[in-house]
Amino acid sequence: MKLPNILLTGTPGVGKTTLGKELASRSGLKYVNVGDLAREGQLYDGYDEEYGCPILDEDRVVDELENEMRQGGVIVDYHGCDFFPERWFHIVFVLRTDNSILYKRLETRGYNEKKLQDNIQCEIFQVLYEEARASYREEIVHQLPSNEPEQLEDNINQILKWIEQWVKDHNS
After folding, report:
1. Where does the pLDDT of residue 69 fall: very low under 50, low under 70, confident under 90, or very high at 90 and above?
2. Where is this region: NMPbind (predicted)?
């Protein structure tokens, strides 16, 4: 494997997609938004009436991504992470956003009140950070602040440096 695989995870609205797309364009790595992948391939296992969204068929998503992940050089963006094989990722970034900022972002997306409150609670209790720590080796899981445009730029630069170092360490 010549290039690393990166997981971007965190509560909906923290900026995973913005970071992932920009990172892919600057690094040359392939960007995969699991939500888009599921939509395009109809990788669903029913519909959640309470949250007003389809239920992801995690096994089919894993099957769909397996070959790409084996080759390397993939940035995966999804709000959950416990169903991805541990062997897939060289590093995991959990994006974190202040609740007041996150609330406004989710409100603009038109989330219903229950979905909004549950996602804010998820962020308050660091649910996705804990899920990442439970699913991957602790030393590869990192939190990144994602409140302001300046932090986005800092995060991109930090990850690009990490990619550069990984490539040096694994291709010499």
Report:
1. very high
2. 33-56
Binding site residues, as ranges? 13, 15-18, 109
Give the integer Cα–Cα distance in Å for 78 and 3: 20
Beta strands in 1-63 (DSSP E): 6-9, 30-33, 44-48, 53-56
Question: Looking at the domain that runs over 6-166, which CATH code has it been given?
Answer: 3.40.50.300
What is the Cα–Cα distance from 159 to 6, expressed in whole angstroms? Answer: 9
Q: Alpha-carbon distance 27 to 37, whole Å?
A: 21
Two tokens at 49? 């009436």
Identity of residue 45: D
Cβ-proximal residues to 122 (8 Å cutoff; 6+ apart), any chain: 11, 128
Residues 5/72, Cβ–Cβ less than 8 Å: yes
Residue stretches of the annotated binding site for ATP: 13, 15-18, 109
Smallest CA-to-CA distance from 81 within 17, 127, 26 is with 127
